[in-house]
Amino acid sequence: MSSSTDIIVVGGGMVGAAAACALGQQGFRVLLLEQKEPDCSWPREGYDIRVSAISRASRNIFLHLRAWEAMQARRVTPYERMVVWESGGAEIRFDAAELGEPELGHIIENSVIQCSLWERMAQESRVKVRTGVTIISLHLDEENPGLTLEGGETLEAELIVAADGARSTLRELAGIPVSGWGYDQSALVCTVKAEKGNQATAWQRFMPDGPLALLPLKTERFSIVWSTSPQEASHLVGLPEEAFDEAITRASEARLGQLTLEGERSIYPLRLQHANRYIKPGLALIGDAAHVIHPLAGQGVNLGLLDMAELVDVLVQARNRQRPLGMELTLRKYERARKGENLAMQGAMDLIKRLFSNDIPPVKLARNLGLELADRITPVKNLLVRNAMGTQGTLPSLAQPPTG
Questions:
Q1: What pLDDT, on a 0 to 100 scale, did the predictor assign at position 384?
Q2: Would you state the pLDDT for residue 2?
Q3: pLDDT tens digits for range 92-148
């Protein structure tokens, strides 16, 4: 076994980088492997078109990791209200003030999150980073799992953590199958400037082809996530800018006035995916390597960060009890804690997507009645929003509010 590494983390995205920081803080010796170091030059003229709606639980994680201040120094946008509506139908409004909270959450560009975490990794002496490596094989057991790199080098540790995304190489090498399906939808993402400003509000309109989300950024900007058919997404991305501006303004029903495109447009296919197992002896999957969810509630990265935080708790307990980190009995505790929660969230988002992505009259009537009732019954509405904020239920240590 390698004498210099306790845990190998594969994947340096938001969840993988957070895992490396958290494990290093807890005294584990960590080696993070990533294909390419992110471009963290700052300031930038434009906005990253990929953003995340960060819950209170995720913000707590960033505070514990001492990365929150670096994110704020770049760009973090709190939002105080959320409006969800259907054309010609009901709407529901959530307001932080009704809960006695300063905000419902924060919209942060993915590059801001990742770069702030990479800065923290560089400050943590127990975390080493290697880039430009390709993994060609995987050996698993409870005490000395290992990776073989292109060129023949072998790396060993007590545990390997797969944070290498939806197309996880490690998951495939471990022979862990996935379940799921494509949504026959694509997400068009871009940044727009709004005539009426962002109003510290996140907006989401449900349409038959999929939801349109407007996530507030600094000043008058919004990050757009427009889920629609692949054909319509291709059409929209190819429109001249003026025609696209009219299309996006019309889709938002001009609630924020004229919307004007800034920068590029990109398309991402949407699917639901779930690994049949999160663990094997010497291996744990976290984040998108374990589960992929529809983006309509912006919960993907929040679920991944909770995976990471739960795994850290389990590994600290194992070390305290002098148990091998890669022991299947140890890792099962992590899988039990997270798999049910993630499946429940996936199921809820899939149900909402199917209920709202159609124009069948009885279904439309039922969902409008449901939205109206939820908006009128304050305890129900507050429960919904607190779940989205990540303040309900039993949370891992890192997701709880810092003390002192």
A1: 58
A2: 42
A3: 888 888 888 899 999 999 999 999 999 999 999 999 999 999 999 999 999 899 999
> Tokens for 156?
């060993």
Tell me the domains of the chain and their CATH numbers: 7-73+106-180+272-357+390-399 (3.50.50.60)
Q: Which residues of the chain have pLDDT under 70?
A: 1-3, 87-89, 296-298, 346-393, 404
